[in-house]
Every structure is written in C-alpha cells, then in structure tokens.
Amino acid sequence: xxxxxxxxxxxxxxxxxxxxxxxxxxxxxxxxxxxxxxxxxxxxxxxxxxxxxxxxxxxxxxxxxxxxxxxxxxxxxxxx
Length: 80
What we know:
Elements: H1 3-17, H2 32-36, H3 40-54, H4 69-79
C-alpha cells in the first residue's frame, strides 16, 4: 500500500463520518479537526474506522502525529 492509497482510505472515512464535508474541503496540510470543524468524538470515530480498515490503532499519545491528512497518511504508512 502506498501513500496515495492510504490518503484515499482516510478521505473516504472522513467523508463517511462527516458527510457534510466535501473532498475539496480537505487540505492535506491543515489540522483536520480545526479546518473541517470536526469535534473530538468524530475525530475518534475516524481513527476507529481507520483502525478497522488498516488494522492500525493510534494510541492517544500519538494523536498529535495524525493531525493533518499528510501526517496521518505518513503515520499509517510507517505502521504498515
């Protein structure tokens, strides 16, 4: 699995959990919660869905490492 495939999976999960967001709203380098106005509960739902899809759990101590789309994709890529 490569970076682009991981980003696609992340974007799919964001759009599923927050259907009011369009893919164009997602800036790869901006904080996901702040830029998309996603609350912490929805952010956790995204991480849970990604855990189910990719088999990688993000511990709370690593939440700051998955704050943007790029950072999240890099994090998952390293864990695979």
